[in-house]
Amino acid sequence: MADGPLIVQSDRTVLLEVAHPDAESARHELAIFAELERAPEHIHTYRITRLGLWNARAAGHDAADMLATLERWSRFPVPPSVSIDIAETVGRYGRLVIERAPVAEDGSGGELILRSTDAAVLTEVSKNKRIQPLLIGRPSPDSFVIDAWARGHIKQELLKIGWPAEDLAGYTPGTPHPIDLAEDGWNLRPYQRQAVDIFTDGGSGVVVLPCGAGKTLVGAGAMAATKTTTLILVTNTVSARQWRDELLKRTSLTPEEIGEYSGQSKEIKPVTIATYQILTAKRKGQYAHLALLDALDWGLIVYDEVHLLPAPVFKLTADLQARRRLGLTATLVREDGREGDVFSLIGPKRFDAPWKEIEAQGFISPAVCYEVRVDLPAGDRLEYAAAADDERYRLAATAPAKIGVVRRLVDRHAGERILVIGQYLDQIDLLAESLGAPKITGATPVDEREQLYQAFRVGEISLLVVSKVANFSIDLPEASVAIQVSGSFGSRQEEAQRLGRLLRPKESGNTASFYTLIARDTVDQDFAQNRQRFLAEQGYAYTILDADGIAA
């Protein structure tokens, strides 16, 4: 047995020795089907989960591929129980298939069919008390008719009991609309083209790419491939306008063909860009804008930053299963644990490219990450110790001692474009005043935000203090330094998004620097360890610095 970097254990955990010369190669292959759980300095712990295996299977990796990865890099023999478990779990995907019955000349037929060649599996699921009401007929021993409205719901329920169905029932073509890529002096990158092709073949699913790797162009490529009316759902109005600008630049679409449906505008065009917020807005207890989902015969629905999909949109998406759905994200991590709903209702992971792999190809900027540990003065430390549990994180995250460290880091990177990122508005106000820098929060009008972002892009301003509104879908390619002063507790997705602000390729070619400021020996430090897990999985290591050692 080779002296590999992995140790595979019978409880489905896999240990990775970080210092091993083959660690990075093993990590990239392992991350296809296993999730990082813990990432201290020397040994990282991954866990092989059912959903991870099924996502890998849907992306084209079979059990033999996954076992070969473990056997190739494992220091000791892979436990037989793990080998058997992986083969059997992966084998569950696709044993149940959802199809559409042929339509006869008289217009009859076209029902949704749940089919399996495994009679025992079909019997088992048909007897489940949550699935049984969704089945309304049995045309043959190997099939059931699914109630027309229940295509999404039955996929959710089947996943919960461990029998994920492969959905081959097809999609409505929608209203045809001519869309072409305007590849004038540019082309889709190879991985973008591959993502578009795999999605088009699969019909629905999620494409996972790093921030800055051009997910919007994958969306545009999918639109050009399907040539149909398209509804694009995004996180906020600024993101909607960036999508609009990119589509006008990169495709044959004209301004008259693209509509914005947000709090400020209610346009419905062949390509309509709407915000999650407007879709989930309620009036008198009812969703006020549900009509948007049927305003046109959409042939494609694009979910930008699908890991942020609000819970109510899952329920709405369950009714959209006949339409092609493309999810775009940098991470499938959801802090609410609803990754299974993304799998069932948007679709499985169709394409995933490791961050470091795309960095090595020169398509995103290299980045180094630092955790700066800040000592609290005696008075602040005593106040923290005496505080209630629910107050301690805020006290640690907003410690005034961080302000001076931020100033020294800003001086250290003079001449670069710097984002200072915080969670708490009073802290953001203090930072902006202390640094003499403009700020952007949720209260900043959209037009003012766009003006400040544009001034930052062109270099009129080089320092910007921002709240979490800048976490998502904001294109600031020349930002090369981010200083995270506080965040949303232990959110892995937020850490990934904030580093992502720096990964867009830069004309300067500079390596990006990502600093996260942590109050030493507090819950701030505990939450930081969880926040860093996803980036550790992607191959980013944090160098720990002492704040007292940072000179301007």
UniProtKB/TrEMBL annotation:
GO terms for molecular function: helicase activity. Residues 405-550 form the Helicase C-terminal domain. It is an enzyme of class 5 (isomerase). Residues 196-350 form the Helicase ATP-binding domain. The keyword Transmembrane does not apply. Belongs to the helicase family. RAD25/XPB subfamily. This is DNA 3'-5' helicase.
